[in-house]
Amino acid sequence: MRTIHTITTIIIALLGAALHAQGPVSLSLQQALDMAAKQSYAVQASALEAEKAQAKIKEITGMGLPQISGTGTMQNYIEVPTMVVPNFFGGDELMKVQFGVPWSLSGGVQLNQLIFDGSYLVGLQATRELRTKSTKDLEQTVLTARVQAAKAYLGVLAAEEGIRLIGESLPVLEKANTDARAMFEQGMIESTDSDRLTVQLDEVRNQQRTMQQQARVARAYLNLVLGLPTGTPITLTDALQPLLDDPKEVGLADAAFDVNQHVDQQVAQSMLRLGELDVRNKKAAYLPSLAGFINYQQQYNYTSFDVGNGSWWFPASLWGLQLNVPIFSSGMRHQQVRQAKLSLEQAGINAKATEQRLLAEREQQQAILRAAQDSYETGKKNLALSRSIFDRTSVKFTEGVASSFELTQEHGNYLSTQQNYIQRIVDLLQARADMRKALDAY
Prior knowledge:
Blueprint: H1 4-20, E1 25-27, H2 29-39, H3 41-62, E2 67-76, E3 83-86, E4 94-97, E5 103-116, H4 118-185, H5 191-226, E6 234-236, H6 240-245, H7 247-250, H8 263-284, E7 289-302, E8 313-324, H9 332-398, H10 404-439
Parallel strand pairs: 1-6
Antiparallel strand pairs: 2-5, 3-4, 5-7, 7-8
Helix pairs in contact: 1-3, 2-3, 2-4, 3-4, 4-5, 4-8, 4-10, 5-10, 8-9, 9-10
């Protein structure tokens, strides 16, 4: 479980990374996942939210600790109020008197201490659960950031693999086009044969540029999910094929799964416990509360503003207890308890639904991953076969046995197989990332 120290360390790491993220960065897949877990924008926001939760916990705790407040007032009567009272000294029936003095100052300090409040005691228990939930919320965000980083990293590798595959056949096609142009100039073939190869070559070069653009977009997205400034050069140190062949990744569909260890389920269970505490809190409103206080003050009263004259300062002090006993609320407290119980039932349903969703997602991702793995294996075999056919046709064209139509047709088939193969790689890598998210295995 993460602590305040851990969260603070993350924030310090974020600041340090922001200062050094301008230069080139070399990352393995694991390093990319760790970087995303520390400095992706979503994690930064979630870490701050966790800090806010810690501050809220301290605020709630402080409610039961001594509270000290000070007050001060000053007043000056421009005209001292006059009252009319019976004349106790004889003479006129009534007389005019002024009971006040022009200047009056007072200052005091009071200490308040909560002695008993059922809601506060329940609140202290809730703070521990709130700390757990804020930690799990951060873990949820980190998991999502790792999944996004994995998809982005592997997406770059897949795009660059597509560029590499197109580049492998390009020299063969360029040579065939040059040979066909020379043969046309010598009158050995028709212009149609030469033009057909020129069109095919232009199309391949256009596809290569498209793949290069896709790779640049994939790198820009990788920068985004890693929390790096746009344009930061990144060198990917992991190669695609070893990742595809990694036994741990290949056997991911058969990995063990404990739904109670998944962070989504833990968050749902935390919400359930908070709901139980909320019911207890609402019931605690029926209990009386008791608080104590101590007050001390000094008051100055005189006909002139001479506060340095201690003869006219008068102290006062007192202590006391304040008891609040709930008696009748016209059903308000009862309805508050009822609402809390209904919310608790909703939390219980949500926890059960989360458990079933996670189990269903695991089963679904298993099926998707196994299908993607089989599709990749088939695509890999088809690519090797298509390349072999294209290579043989290229040799035949050079020897004058095959026509340019046959060469362009087989090259078109090879390009189509390449595209299918790259798409199957992407599907496989995404399925593995989604499977790891379903297992909470990042």
